[in-house]
């Protein structure tokens, strides 16, 4: 938690400088591609966690049914 403490001290001017540096490094055309890739990755992660959660809930329901018989 303490590793990201420096983010609290970033002001508006610093954010503008960071955005400009990112644009210079990656180019304006490449940034939407990076954002799409990041969005896909986040979506896949959420889907995977939902699938695991559903499997766990299904397993618990099956265990409860077996215990009640």
UniProtKB/TrEMBL annotation:
Record-level GO BP terms: protein transport by the Tat complex
Main localization category: membrane
Family listed: Belongs to the TatA/E family.
Function: Part of the twin-arginine translocation (Tat) system that transports large folded proteins containing a characteristic twin-arginine motif in their signal peptide across membranes. TatA could form the protein-conducting channel of the Tat system.
Domain of life the protein comes from: Bacteria
A GO-annotated cellular component: TAT protein transport complex
HAMAP family: TatA_E (MF_00236)
Name of the protein described by the UniProt record: Sec-independent protein translocase protein TatA
Residue intervals passing through the bilayer: 6-26
Coiled coil stretches, renumbered: none
Presence of keyword Transmembrane: yes
A Pfam family this chain is assigned to: TatA_B_E
Keyword Chloroplast in annotation: no
PANTHER family cross-referenced by the UniProt entry: SEC-INDEPENDENT PROTEIN TRANSLOCASE PROTEIN TATA
Gene name in the database record: tatA
